[in-house]
Write a structure and sequence with these properties.
Distance between the termini: 11 Å
Helix content: 55-70%
CATH class: Alpha Beta
CATH architecture: 3-Layer(aba) Sandwich
Shape: globular
CATH topology: Rossmann fold
Number of domains: 1
Largest sheet: 5 strands, parallel
Radius of gyration: 16 Å
Order of helices and strands: EHEHHHEHEHHHEH
Bound molecules: adenosine-5'-diphosphate
Number of strands: 5
Structural class: alpha/beta
Number of helices: 9
Strand order of the largest sheet: 2-3-1-4-5
């Protein structure tokens, strides 16, 4: 059973790699960023609430994200396994997830940290040019990453769940490295 949590700064390549591994293992790829962008496009109640935060590079409040993940992990396509890409992003969300997985009786999840140096990340995001990829918003997302999300590295390392992968290689090399550590 493959249950994976992808950690790493914005621009680390979580989305690209999660898509590749999910395809290869035939499991669900759950990207909270993609779900939010779709909700904003459709102007659903969640999308309307999230828009302001996303546009500014801030985190969407935990409660909204937790409801979203609770709902998504209860869908039948997650039974054969999943990759969480973009959640958890705070220690609060990680505690919530731990309890949720216990409730759902889903165990054995592994956490992969994609390591990429700061200057590489900024260059990649500027190149990507998504709506929330302006220089100012990128800077804010990295600050938020450092203060809110990076502490999860210690959180999962303390729980002996953490696997490290060098994300500063070609896409194919990262996929190969990932496949090895999760085998
Ligand atoms: P990136 O590719 O920069 O890591 P994502 O596509 O994962 O970005 O997410 C885009 C935006 O969606 C984030 O900057 C944030 O505003 C919001 N978001 C996504 N996941 C979460 C989460 N777990 N908690 C709070 N906000 C989130």
């Amino acid at each position: 059973m493959t249950r994976l949590i992808f950690l790493g700064p914005p621009g680390a390549g979580k989305g690209t790699q999660a898509k590749a591994i999910a395809h290869y293992r035939n499991i669900a790829h759950i990207s909270t960023g993609d779900i939010l962008r779709q909700a904003m496009k459709e102007q659903t109640p969640l999308g309307i609430k999230a828009q302001n935060y996303v546009d500014r590079g801030e985190l969407v409040p935990d409660q909204l994200m937790e409801d979203l993940v609770l709902h998504r992990l209860s869908q039948p396509d997650t039974i054969s396994g999943w990759i969480l890409d973009g959640f958890p992003r705070t220690v609060n969300q990680a505690c919530f997830l731990e309890q949720l997985l216990q409730k759902l009786e889903q165990h054995g999840e592994k956490v992969v940290n994609l390591e990429v140096p700061d200057d590489v990340v900024v260059a990649r995001l500027l190149e990507r040019g998504r709506k929330d990829d302006t220089e100012e918003v990128i800077r804010r997302r990295l600050e938020v990453y450092r203060s809110e999300t990076a502490p999860l590295i210690d959180y999962y390392s303390d729980r002996q769940q953490l696997l490290m992968v060098n994300g500063n290689q070609s896409q194919e090399e990262v996929t190969t490295a990932l496949t090895k550590v999760i085998a």
